[in-house]
Design brief:
With 269 residues, the chain is α/β, with parallel strands linked by helices. It has 2 domains: 1-79 and 159-258, P-loop containing nucleotide triphosphate hydrolases (Rossmann fold, 3-Layer(aba) Sandwich); 80-158, no CATH class. Helices cover 32% and strands 25% of the residues. It contains 9 helices and 12 strands. It is globular. This is ABC transporter related. Pfam families: ABC_tran. GO terms for molecular function: ATP binding; ATP hydrolysis activity. Residues 6-241 form the ABC transporter domain.
Length: 269
């Protein structure tokens, strides 16, 4: 039996002395799409950063059977590609040069990108509807355009594990669908593993094989979308009044206005 793509055991993370994750366990099979959901402050982004090797984890995280702390940076970059919510962008950098940063793990020290590297960058830009943007400076792009460029860099990296932190947060609904369909196509065609965080619960339920609900730094629920996206769980952990509709590809979560209490105060779930 092969090792899982991601194995997290009793992960505990403190930032500035404040506990963020307190004993998280998670296993993601190779080729699986798992999306982490939860209210603000639950620890979703922190979990992704830990899985990506950006936080010390004391051997709590393994990728494809190897403790992440044992992977050299270049080797880790060939395994895992991360798209953060707000990546740091060097001033004056063009779209093409930024996407080519994803090819760094394959370029020798002091070397230059090859014809194959350039072809990979151009291909992913075209697939993300960024044809003609190659020479544009990132600073001149809209938020949605920049988000697609950030994703392009991750795709160009050719890693087997994609970590996507709110990948559609700045996109209109059309580009949301384009990006997520492309992620799913690449996953199925190349056996990629995807771990994402999302706030849009309906989209999360349509694309993920499994959902992990984080609350207060712990796993509150895990299972397929229909097991996790229930009115009871969402009321308890989001303090939200919703209606869950059975859609063709997963449950659809529709917010509904809470009923007013007799004294005029909004009722709680």
């Amino acid at each position: 039996m092969s090792a899982p793509a991601v194995a997290v055991r009793d992960l505990r993370v403190q930032l500035a002395g404040v506990p963020i994750l307190t004993g998280v366990d998670l296993s993601v099979a190779a080729g699986e799409w798992v999306t982490v959901i939860g209210p603000n402050g639950a620890g979703k982004s922190t979990l992704l950063r830990a899985v990506g090797g950006l936080l010390p984890t004391e051997d709590a995280v393994s990728l494809f059977g190897t403790p992440i702390q044992q992977l050299r940076r270049r080797d880790r970059a060939r395994v895992v590609a991360t798209v953060a919510q707000s990546p740091v962008v060097p001033a004056g950098m063009s779209v093409l040069d930024y996407v080519l940063l994803g090819r760094t793990p394959y370029i020798a020290p002091l070397g230059r990108e090859s014809t194959a590297d350039l072809a990979a960058a151009h291909d992913v830009l075209d697939r993300l509807d960024l044809t003609g943007f190659h020479a544009r400076e990132l600073a001149t792009l809209s938020g949605g355009e920049r988000q697609r460029v950030f994703l392009a860099r991750a795709f160009a990296q050719g890693a087997t594990l994609l970590l996507l932190d709110e990948p559609t947060s700045a996109l209109d609904i059309g580009h949301q669908q384009d990006v997520l369909e492309l992620v799913d196509q690449l996953r199925r065609a190349h056996g990629l593993t995807v771990v994402a965080t999302m706030h849009d619960l309906s989209i999360a339920g349509e694309y993920a094989d499994r959902l992990v609900l984080l609350a207060d730094g712990q796993v509150a629920a895990v299972g397929n979308p229909r097991e996790v996206l229930t009115t009871e769980l969402l009321a308890r952990h989001y303090r939200a009044t919703v209606k869950v509709i059975d859609g063709e590809r997963g449950p659809l979560v529709v917010p509904v206005r809470p009923a007013s209490a007799p004294d005029g105060v909004l009722g709680r779930c």
